[in-house]
Structures are given as structure tokens and as C-alpha cells.
Amino acid sequence: MSDSSSKLEVLIAVDFGTTFSGLCWALKDKPRDHNPVQNWPGDGASHNKVPTTLLYQPKYLWGYEIRGNEPRYEWFKLGLHPSGEGKGLAKNYPSTTSLIAYSTEDKERLVINYLTSLRKHTETIMANTYITSVFSKMSREYIITVPAVWDDKAQGRTQECAKQAGMGDHVQIITEPEAAGIYALSNMPTTTLKKNDTFILCDAGGGTVDLVSYTISKLQPVPRLREAARGEGGLCGSIFLNRIFAKRLTDKFANYPDWDDEYQTDALKFFEDDIKKNFNGDISQHYFIPARGLNKPELGIHQNKLRLSGEEIRNVFEPVVQDVISLVITQIHKTARPVTAVLMAGGFGSSEYLRTRIQDVVGTGIEVRRVANGDTAIVKGALISGLSKKDPGHPYAIGSFGIDSRVARRHYGTMAYDTFIPGVHDENLKEPSPYSSDFFVPCMQWLIQKNTNVEDTKPVVTQKPFFWEKPVLDGSPTFIETRIHVSEKDQAPLHLDRKNVSELVKIHADISSIPAESFPRKTGVGHQAFYRIPYKIETAIHSGSITFALLYGDQRYEATKEFL
């Protein structure tokens, strides 16, 4: 840099994965120049990703620094959204090397420590790239990925952990399928997809598989998408291939003591580096794994090699592939529009066997294709999206690259009091009005209905006002506070049913700048005077996050969030 006083603005994308994580960064004024991180502590080779693992004893280690079969903390990302743990493949094929963090606080600590390691490593690389006077003035922002099926609380936890890891107070969040979809359409010039076509993005990673349906709003000058159906997901990533393979070997050699941990480790590495990546379903092929010094023909070991048939390898793949196929079929059925294609992203999404098996099931009417550079599609798509939001006028963005609308994954609302109507409301819930002889009843006022489309640039504003009340004797109101509830039910509940309605977040807006005399007053029972402030709630659904604001008169007040 010739001008050491100029300030560089950098966006760093973090693909925080269940089993592996990736990083990529770019300068705001050079948005086409992507810089993937490929060198990691503990390994001299070049890798697009680093293991999402931690070890604290005898010293702090992370990623490739952890060797062999040492017990380590892994899968801790799922501690932010633990609903899928202990089911299906995760239950049948548990990790044999994982240390366990039991409390929510411990799981979040692992996430914070790991993200801190990613941040420090990236900043070390940048410090070695630029002279000190430039690096010291460099402005760094982060965008981090989350699964599309995670709820708002898990997404908020991720954002908070990233902040505590030193990634700043304005960490962007984007869902993994959305990032992959943006990358796919920007890097598939020969795609047969057209405007108004609907496709499914299947992000098949190491731990999880995440799917979302999109319809193409336009392809030129840059792609714009809109969600066509909310996503599905599950714990059926490629790590389960390793676990199934390991269990098959353990069972196979249970009574052969010469097959020790070292042979097992070497066989698993061969499976990871060779067989898993290249298996295409050909059961006539045989695979030979080095087993130097062993000879046990009846167990398939002959002349220092373990011989495995293509059928044995297929049987390793099938339990995992079947789960992925089930998710794809469910997503197709959920999508109202005809699906034209299934685009496969993520490391497991690069598997030709997985692609052909899905193609066989969905038939020739739906094209199943792999996204180029599938294992880095998410981190690069996140970078593209974040750069366009930082500068929508930049030629690379041409008016912002991304999503026009999203499908609400649940109902969002707040509790308010309605005038009691016999036959409509629950008699047991009615309460006397503090202002009249009428009865009131607490009801849910739904701000956004599940499965509705919410435009990215048009937040939803409530039609009717809510009221914030405070006795005049207690002084001038300085804030408005309310709680947002959610429901996963298809039919939004009328009342605050604790079985089907849960608290999501408390939102708080500062109104201390408004003069007290401008607030409306009302006299209640016993002639007590109240401030009764009408306000509306503005809700915006973004990729991987939800935001709120409160409107009073013609003024808008940003609301802070406290997840409950």
C-alpha cells in the first residue's frame, strides 16, 4: 500500500460448521478478490477448512493442532440449538472421541473460544499481509453462517457468541443455504435455471443437512431469489459415514487383537481421504486399505492390505443417504411450485453417490447437480452477500445481491387485551377492565403468520396500536417494553396457551427524549391518572436474524432484544 494512512475496510466471512469451519475475506474496495484461509495451525498442508474441535488439557489446542484419537470437544455448535441431538444417526452412531459439555454456559464457552481462535488466526494472516501502519487502522467486520432450521433464539445466541469472541458489535448473520444459493447462481453460468424457476438448495455438510426452496426472481444483472418454502434439516452429514465405517471395522475385528488402535486410525484416515470422496456407487469395485504386517485372509486382510468390496462401502453410505433423501422428498412436497432442480452444496454435497441416489429417486423431471466448489460455496456466498449489503451501489452488487422475501418459519406475536366477547373468548380468562364496566381478555395479537412471505426490504408493521401504560405519579415514561411470543402450530392460537405459545424475546425501546406532556393520559378506576401511550411494532425477518422497532407517532425507535 502506497498510502499507509488510508483505512481499509474488510469483511470476513465465517462458515461456522458442525465438524469443519471455513474463513474467507475481502476488501470492500476489491469485492471480487476473495481471500480464502487455507493454512491452519498444526498442519503444513493447504485445507479449505479446519476441524471444529477444541482441547484444553494439557494445553489449549484447536483444529488441526489436535492429533490422532485424543478426546476432544466437538459438535459443540449444536449446543446453541440442541433439539436434534440424541436422535436417529446421532443416537445410533455416537462419537467415540468426544468430550461432553453438559451445561448451556459450557457449550457457549466452547463456541466463544473456538470463534476467538478463528478470529485471531485470520487477524494474524492479515497482519502478515499488510504493513503494520495499514493493519492497525484496518476496519474489520464479520458475517457468520447459521443453519436455516435454527430458531431465532439459536441464531441470536450465535450472534452473541461471535460478539464475545471479539468479532464486533455488528456481526451479520446469514443462513447456510441462502449463502450457498447466492454463490451457486453467481458461479453457474451454464445453469439451465430460468427466471421463475424453483429449486431446492441442499447444503449437505459434515454434521448437518439443511434444505430451503427458492424461486428465482431474476438472474440478470445479478440473481435475486425469494424463498418458496421454509426449510427442513437434520443430523445426517458425512461424519456419520466415518462413524458407521468405524463401527463396521470394530465389529469385524472384535476378535482379532492384532487390529489395534493404530490400524483403526490409519484405516479411518484412508476412508476419509480416499474412499469417502471418490465412491460413486460402483459395487464391482474393490478398495484396498494398507494394513502393513497383517495377514488374516478370512477377515479380508491379505498381503498387508484390507480388501473391502464396493457393496460393503455402499452399505456404509446407505443409512446416511436414505436420511438425506427423506429430507429432499419432504422439501419437494412442502414446496407449492414445481421444483426444477436440486442444487447440492457443502462437502457431502460434492459426493457423486449422494447426487446419483437423489437423482434416481426424484426422477428425470428434476435435475440434481453439484454446486462448483461445494465445500467453500457457503463461506464465499456469505462473503458476496455481506459485501453487497455493505455497499449496495458497488458494481459487484448492482443493487444488492440476495433474497427478496423469506417465508416465516413460525407465528410471531404479542399478548394484548381485547374486549371480552361471549362465545368467542374463554370465559375463564376474562378480567375486569380498569377503565370501564366491560371485561377484557388476554389474547394473542399475531404480527406475522407462519408460512407467510415477508419482503426483505419491507418490515411488517402492526395495523392497530398497542398501549404502554404507566401511572402519572410514577413519573414520565422513559421506555416501552413488550414481549414477543412465537408458536410453531399451523393454526395460530387465540389465547396465550403455554403448551403451544412460548416467549421468544423481550424488546425494549428508549423514549426518554419525548416530552412527558406529549403522551396521552387516561383516568382509570379510583380516578388514578395513567399515561397510555399508543405504539406499533415493526418486525423484519432477515437471513438468520429478526429485528424489531417501535413506532410512536411519526417516530421510529430501534428496539433492543433480550432472548428469554
From TrEMBL:
CDD domains registered for this protein in UniProt: ASKHA_NBD_HSP70
GO molecular function: ATP binding; ATP-dependent protein folding chaperone
Keyword Nucleotidyltransferase part of the UniProt annotation: no
Keywords tagged on the record: ATP-binding, Nucleotide-binding
Protein biosynthesis in keyword set: no
Protein name as it appears in the record: Actin-like ATPase domain-containing protein
